[in-house]
Amino acid sequence: MSGANGSTWRNWAGNVTARPAREVTPASAAELAAVVRRAAEQNLTVKAVGTGHSFTATAATDGVLIRPDLLTGIREIDRAAMTVTVEAGTPLKRLNAALAREGLSLTNMGDIMEQTVAGATSTGTHGTGRDSASIAAQITALELVTADGSLLTCSAKENADVFAAARIGLGALGVITAITFAVEPVFLLTAREEPMTFDKVTEEFDELFAENEHFEFYWFPHTGNCNTKRNNRSQGPAAPPGTVRGWIDDEFMSNGLFQVVCSLGRAVPATIPAVAKVSSRALSARTYTDIPYKVFTSPRRVRFVEMEYALPREAVVGALREVKALVDRSPLRVSFPVEVRTAPADDIALSTASGRESAYIAVHMYRGTPYQAYFTAVERIMTAHGGRPHWGKIHTRDAAYFAEVYPRFGEFTALRDRLDPDRRFANPYLRRVLGD
Q1: Taking the CA atoms of the chain, what radius of gyration do you get in angstroms?
Q2: Distance from C-alpha of 145 to C-alpha of 124, rounded to nearest angstrom
Q3: What whole-number distance in Å separates Cα of residue 5 and Cα of residue 302?
Q4: Is 328 helix (H, G, I), strand (E, B) or coil?
Q5: C-alpha distances in angstroms, 313 versus 7, 20, 205?
Q6: What tens digit of pLDDT does each residue of 368-425 get?
Q7: Hey, what long-range contacts does 74-80 have (CB within 8 A, 24 or more apart)?
Q8: Closest residue by Cα to residue 367 from 266, 260, 218
Q9: CB 122: neighbour CB atoms within 10 A?
Q10: Which 3-state string (H, E, C) describes 86-129?
Q11: How many CB atoms lie within 10 A of CB 376?
Q12: Three-state DSSP string of 394-433
């Protein structure tokens, strides 16, 4: 186990920095438990980081920073139970590739796979799905080091109260050391990407949602244009995007050219509406079939900041129309598309879809562009609909607000009081969102 002092930690977007007293890289759950016990003796707080893909300071600390680089790999694949147990620091991309080699897959996932499994699940990372929920909802068991250094195994049968909360635990209940996910035999998805007008996609949203296993769309601000994506299970055969076409769509359009467009927009904001009209019309329809992670996920090399709110599903179209009206009438210049996804209700205390069918509206701004005016105005719309912000994305809500929009908020904070009475895992962000 290595230790380092005083270096600065930064998140992916560069909007959060921290200077921990020391960094440690434990190689086992036992070593991690010893780190927590030693921190308690020195009265230091402890936070584990993943790859820093959260835009909030949920993992920031001036105490002991735990890096997960050595807590990686698959512990066990149980083909009878159809589960996989992985170390907490395993990147999703490594898990996805390893499962595919074994002829297995997660049921649903988000649109990037750079994050660690513990970081992604602890903040409620999700994709889109009519029937299949977030990555955390696919957890069947987890292992947690609590504030006194003990190791808890949690599942629906063992420490069930902790399991109900810790699948999306924000790092507030302890440090996760391993996660067991439900898996299924690998399958094929056919993706159908198609431009559609804003008016058409919003008018037909309920049908598009009902008819597709995974539906999402992007609206391009300053235009009436959207791009839709439908992913549905397929008998095959596999037909991945052609190498050239795939590179043009996924690398040149989505990363290379988009980077140039965003940089131009940051330098000369007045160009954004005209460029948006041209670029949103440049999209063409395409259909391809591949294994799940190659369809669900794509590279994201253009850096940005993001805010995302979960709304009751029936409220999403009205809220999105309000966001469009806001952009249309304001001097705001927004170069990033607005993303809309869905999730079924789940039973995790602090899941953004806890107890209600949900839809998500995500707004982004290119890194280095002032985002406060846009995000503040959008947040006002979202909170008027009882929205729940993504735990890993920018928002201004606090514990008093969350107590209103999460029926099981008190259940989570009571559990935190029991597992971490001295707030070994606290930081300013958690004090704001969970109270002290």
Answers
A1: 21
A2: 20
A3: 31
A4: helix
A5: 43, 40, 10
A6: 899 999 999 999 999 999 999 999 999 999 999 999 999 999 999 999 999 999 999 9
A7: 74/98, 75/178, 77/102, 77/104, 77/183
A8: 266
A9: 32
A10: EECCCEHHHHHHHHHHCCEECCCCCCCCCCEHHHHHHCCCCCCC
A11: 11
A12: CCCCCHHHHHHHCCCHHHHHHHHHHHCCCCCCCCHHHHHH
- Determine the length of the chain: 436
> Dihedral (C-alpha) 392, 398, 401, 406: value to the nearest 10 degrees?
40
Partners of residue 77 on adjacent β-strands: 84
d(C-alpha 300, C-alpha 399), whole Å: 32
- The pTM score is 0.94
Instruction: List the one residue out of 44, 1, 5, 46 whose CA is nearest residue 22.
Output: 5
Angle subtended at Cα 174 by Cα 171 and Cα 178, rounded to the nearest 5 degrees = 90
**Token pair 């002092």 is at which residue?**
5
Beta-strand ranges (E) seen in 49-199 are: 64-66, 74-78, 83-87, 104-105, 139-145, 151-155, 175-182, 184-185, 188-197
CB 332 within 8 A of CB 288: no
Give pLDDT tens digits for 309-359: 999 999 999 999 999 999 999 999 999 999 999 999 999 999 999 999 999
In the structure encoding, which two tokens stand for residue 155, read together? 């599942």
